[in-house]
Write a structure and sequence with these properties.
The chain has about 230 residues and is of the alpha+beta class. Among the domains are: about 80 residues, no CATH class; about 50 residues, no CATH class. About 20% of the residues lie in helices and about 25% in strands. The protein has one helix and eight strands; from the N terminus they run E-E-E-E-E-E-E-E-H. A hairpin with a 5-residue loop joins strand 5 and strand 6.
C-alpha cells in the first residue's frame, strides 16, 4: 500500500512598471542685442522603444516529482497479534519512486514602440508681438549704424586719397594697396578748373597787307615740277 501526497501550490507573479518621461526644456530664446530676448513656442518630439524579457535560469521543462513512502504497517498489534499501524510512518523520508512533471516554464517577451510629443506655447501673445517689434527696430537701428560707419569710412578714404593725389603721392600700380585709391578722381586742383577751355587768338589782318600765299610743295607725280630739264638716253 502506498499513498502519494503531493500538494502543489505554485504562485508566480511579475510586475513591470514602465514609464516614459518627457523632459520639457525651456522655450527657444532668441537674442537680438540690446538686452532684447524673445521666446518662441517649443515642440518636443520624443520617440521611444521599450522592451522586457523574463526567463527562469536554468530552463527546466520537466522535473522529477518524488513520491514518498507514507506506509504505516507496523508499530502495533491487533487482538490476534498481527502487526498493524500505530499512526506513525514506518519509513519516513523514503522515496518510493519519482514521476516526471511538466513545469510549464517559458520565456516572456514584451516590446513597446511609440513616441510622445508636447507643444508648449506662451499664453501672452501681446508680449511676443512687442518683443518681435522691438527686435525689428533694433535690427533696423544696427543696420543704419553699419551704413553710417561705412559712409564715414568711404568719405575718409576719399578725402585722404584726394589729398595724397594732389601732392603727387600714390601707391605703385603693382602694389596690393593700389586699389585703395584707384577709384578716387581729383577734379579742380588749385589754379585749375575742370573742364576748362583755351581760346586761340585770331591772326591779325589789315586791309593794306596782302595775304601771303602758301607755297605748294612739289610732289613726285609730275616730273616737270622738279625744276630741271629731263633728257632721255
Amino acid at each position: 500500500m502506498s499513498a502519494t501526497a503531493s500538494p502543489v501550490a505554485n504562485s508566480s507573479g511579475s510586475v513591470t512598471n514602465q514609464a516614459i518621461q518627457v523632459l520639457q526644456g525651456p522655450y527657444i530664446t532668441n537674442t537680438y542685442g540690446g538686452g532684447i530676448q524673445c521666446q518662441g513656442p517649443t515642440r518636443n518630439f520624443t520617440p521611444y522603444v521599450t522592451g522586457s524579457v523574463s526567463a527562469s535560469k536554468p530552463f527546466q521543462g520537466y522535473y522529477d516529482d518524488p513520491v514518498y513512502d507514507v506506509g504505516d504497517n507496523f508499530g502495533a498489534f491487533d487482538d490476534d497479534g498481527n502487526n498493524i499501524g500505530d499512526g506513525i510512518i514506518d519509513n519516513p523520508g523514503d522515496i518510493l519512486f519519482t514521476k516526471r512533471t511538466r513545469t510549464g516554464q517559458k520565456d516572456n517577451y514584451s516590446l513597446g514602440v511609440g513616441f510622445s510629443m508636447t507643444w508648449s506655447t506662451p499664453l501672452d501673445k501681446n508680449l511676443q508681438d512687442l518683443c518681435k517689434e522691438a527686435a525689428s527696430s533694433n535690427i533696423a537701428m544696427m543696420q543704419q549704424l553699419t551704413a553710417n560707419k561705412r559712409l564715414d569710412f568711404e568719405i575718409a578714404r576719399l578725402k585722404n586719397c584726394g589729398e595724397l593725389k594732389l601732392r603727387g603721392i600714390q601707391f605703385h600700380p603693382k602694389s596690393p594697396y593700389y586699389s585703395v585709391c584707384a577709384d578716387v578722381v581729383v577734379n579742380n586742383p588749385p589754379g585749375h578748373k575742370h573742364p576748362h577751355y583755351h581760346k586761340i587768338p585770331p591772326i591779325p589782318s589789315s586791309s593794306s597787307e596782302t595775304p601771303t600765299a602758301i607755297p605748294v610743295q612739289p610732289h613726285s607725280s609730275d616730273a616737270d615740277l622738279l625744276g630741271v630739264p629731263l633728257s632721255i638716253r
